[in-house]
């Protein structure tokens, strides 16, 4: 069983939001994601999806996009991004998926999961104080996201205890928890203290040399998984609890 990751799918089957307005590299991006997905991923695999999944403004508007995801091979674990306006409570989303028959979709929210030989935790995150436009409102949201990450890491520790082992761990986030220069944040410190091995994030669509290099900082390996940074091909994280080489 393999574990993959991809973020920022930006599906828009039911709303008028063409992504090629952001550059030619987004041309036919949905078709390219689907082609790579079918080539690389089987029904036994799991894909972490790090937010900005659908441009829909409600579950009803996102139904076509979630339905498309459900038809693709493998189990999908969904995390909220800053543009996922359709996102609501986990209970409502799970009920919606049951009603629509979207059986391959799961949600990462204040919890931790055991999949493909790995432990998975995470939170959306937010912009960091190093951002020149960081505001008092951003600070409030970042503090809330820090609490959500703490809840997820608490569940990670409980999962380790219940299973009686410490599997290789992956934190899925939407925003990068380190700055473009590699500076720490309250979020990255939590990952370090919890002994998380790999952090996968998205959100970033411009070239940041540090992020593209996949740095290891204080024991945590940071990998960017924005779909356009991956040429719209899900990133292999590992197989059966063994990390890939991340070349």
Q: Tags for this entry?
A:
single chain, 247 residues, alpha/beta, Purple Acid Phosphatase, chain A, domain 2, 6-stranded mixed beta sheet, 6 helices, 31% helix, globular
Quick description:
The chain is of the alpha/beta class and 247 residues long. It is built from six helices and twelve strands.
What does this structure look like?
This protein is α/β, with parallel strands linked by helices. It has a single domain, classed as Purple Acid Phosphatase, chain A, domain 2, CATH 3.60.21. Helices cover 31% and strands 19% of the residues. It is built from six helices and twelve strands. The protein has a six-stranded mixed sheet with strand order 4-3-2-1-11-12. The longest helix has 28 residues. It is globular. The mean pLDDT is 96.
Task: Specify the structural class.
Answer: alpha/beta
The percent range for strand residues is 15-25%
Biggest sheet statistics: 6 strands, mixed
How many domain units? 1
The secondary-structure element order is EHEHEHEEEHEHEHEEEE
Q: Which CATH architecture would you pick?
A: 4-Layer Sandwich
The total of helices stands at 6
SSE layout and pairings?
Blueprint: E1 2-6, H1 29-40, E2 46-49, H2 59-71, E3 75-78, H3 90-100, E4 105-107, E5 113-115, E6 118-123, H4 136-163, E7 169-173, H5 186-193, E8 198-201, H6 209-213, E9 216-217, E10 220-224, E11 235-239, E12 242-243
Parallel strand pairs: 1-2, 2-3, 3-4, 6-7, 7-8, 8-10
Antiparallel strand pairs: 1-11, 5-6, 9-10, 11-12
Helix pairs in contact: 4-5
């Amino acid at each position: 069983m393999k574990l993959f990751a991809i973020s920022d799918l930006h599906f828009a089957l039911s709303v008028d939001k063409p992504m090629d307005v952001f550059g030619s590299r987004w041309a036919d991006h949905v078709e390219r994601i689907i082609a790579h997905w079918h080539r690389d991923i089987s029904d036994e695999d799991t894909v972490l999806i790090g937010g900005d999944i659908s441009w829909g403004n409600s579950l009803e508007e996102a139904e076509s996009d979630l339905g498309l995801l459900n038809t693709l091979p493998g189990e999908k674990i969904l995390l909220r991004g800053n543009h996922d306006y359709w996102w609501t409570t986990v209970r409502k989303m799970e009920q919606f998926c049951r009603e629509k028959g979207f059986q391959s979709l799961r949600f990462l929210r204040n919890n931790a999961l055991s999949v493909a030989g790995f432990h998975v935790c995470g939170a959306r995150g937010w912009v960091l104080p190093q951002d020149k436009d960081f505001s008092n409102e951003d600070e409030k949201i970042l503090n809330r996201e820090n609490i959500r990450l703490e809840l997820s890491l608490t569940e990670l520790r409980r999962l380790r205890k219940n299973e009686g082992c410490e599997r290789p761990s992956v934190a899925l986030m939407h925003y990068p928890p380190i700055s473009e220069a590699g500076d720490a944040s309250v979020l990255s410190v939590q990952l370090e203290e919890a002994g998380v091995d790999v952090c996968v994030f998205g959100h970033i669509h411009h070239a940041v040399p540090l992020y593209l290099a996949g740095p290891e900082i204080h024991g945590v390996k940071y990998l960017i998984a924005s779909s356009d940074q991956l040429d719209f091909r899900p990133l292999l994280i590992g197989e059966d609890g063994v990390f890939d080489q991340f070349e």
